[in-house]
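Reproducibility note. Readers wishing to regenerate the assembly model reported in the main text can use the exact inputs given here. Chain order matters: entities are listed in the order in which they were concatenated for prediction.
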Amino acid sequence: MAQQEDVFKKLVSHCKEYGFVFPSSEIYDGLGAVYDYGQNGVELKNNIKKYWWDSMTLLNENVVGIDSAIFMHPTIWKASGHVDAFNDPLIDNKDSKKRYRADVLIEEQLAKFEDKINKEVEKAEKKFGEAFDKEQFLSTNPRVLENQEKKDELHARFAKALNDSNLEELRQIILDYEVVCPISGTRNWTDVRQFNLMFSTEMGSTSDGAMKIYLRPETAQGIFVNFLNVQKSGRMKVPFGIAQIGKAFRNEIVARQFIFRMREFEQMEMQFFVRPGEELEWFAKWKEIRLKWHKALGMGDSMYRYHDHEKLAHYANAATDIEFRMPFGFKEVEGIHSRTDFDLGSHEKYSGKKIQYFDPELNQSYVPYVIETSIGVDRMFLSIMAGSFCEEELEGGDTRVVLKLPPALAPIKLAILPLVKKDGLPEMARKIMNELKFEFNCQYDEKDTVGKRYRRQDAIGTPYCVTIDYDSLNDNCVTIRHRDTMEQERVAISALRDIIADKVSVKNLLKKIVE
Ligand code: GAP
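Running the prediction on these inputs yields the following structure tokens for the assembly.
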């Protein structure tokens, strides 16, 4: 675990050193849980967004996009339930004066039981080698069973307290399990209180006063309130979906773990409108499609898992998360929810406008049911960075830090490196760059030895480096060096475009989803 924390720290400083992510307002000592993306970060982020957007709007003829405003009528947040119920239970430690989410403290306690079980499994795997039967071990080993029982007991108590919104019981669990504040080390806790996560501001200035409005805490509501606009103007037939990418804002109580939990972040959400009664079938379909989307990136299937929700929001009849194995454990990257007709129905009620779809096949009108897929761009970014970050020992004792980014997402696709800064090599390199720059993000670099230049490109995840040497002047060939294998091959300059295009295209990722 300590080793993983170490990796995470290295990753955070790597992000800063190589222009991926900077703390916001750094020269003023930063602003809590707000980050800026640098020159490489913005490219990676844009590539992630493109991959998601294309997977929604190109692969599905019945999914279209919108871009709604961040400011919306305040009653929308009343209708959605956010004004009354978008709360986190918070608890303060009286000695350290630090504030925590009560539910997160309990989840960490649950994770401790899980860790203990995993350690037993690891030990036994080492001891028994190939003869190890994991299923049997999990169902018979006394230490595993003891920890599993403790975990189940805590889990049941925790789920009931959340379902009943029983804040006293949440506090009691924290006391009973002797949870200590990581800063003060004490168990001197306050009561648990609810805290609304929405940021508000004021719009206009009339004699009656300005109107209180909110910064949207999710992009989804912009889709719901445009349901009729899109359905009518696009002559959309149920089932159909509306996709959107945009900023969301939450006044998170505990903002930790870098860009995992931010106060300003970006979401990629898609609401898929279906006939009532068909929602669970569509839920299962989207669950599968979304996991394929993640796995197509080639980070390793074991890096992902589903986490089905036992505690469902009052409007949902099924929900699951796709979790990624971050350096700090498996964490939610995406949520897939079957949201019933709650949102559209509620907007009907609050707006007084009929929000229904006439289904010509059934010859009846209804409020469609909704399957939502919702993924955080920043969390996706973090998962990609964490899954790609490697420190490698090379032959001869040398080391390198390399980001093994999926080539289609890499900020720079191709580095163009003249061997020396003279004798016509830079001119030839520039000529290659001028031809390829229309299609790929290329970087020209002539400073330092080629070895040092390779390392710089490894550190930002550039999948291909092209070196132009003296032979190139005569044979019109260059050397391509592959980031992951460090293998080099000699290719004709005229073949370069096709070789690179095949490897870095988003198209190939998209194809894997529909395979
Ligand atoms: N419309 C549904 C919705 O907003 P959510 O589970 O609250 O559901 C969806 O958020 C996704 O947005 C999460 O899976 C996560 O990737 C991202 N997200 C939520 N809060 C975030 C935060 N504070 N910082 C970064 N990403 C966040």
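We highlight two features of this model. The mean pLDDT is 95. The domain at 1-71+217-393 is CATH 3.30.930.10 (BirA Bifunctional Protein; domain 2).
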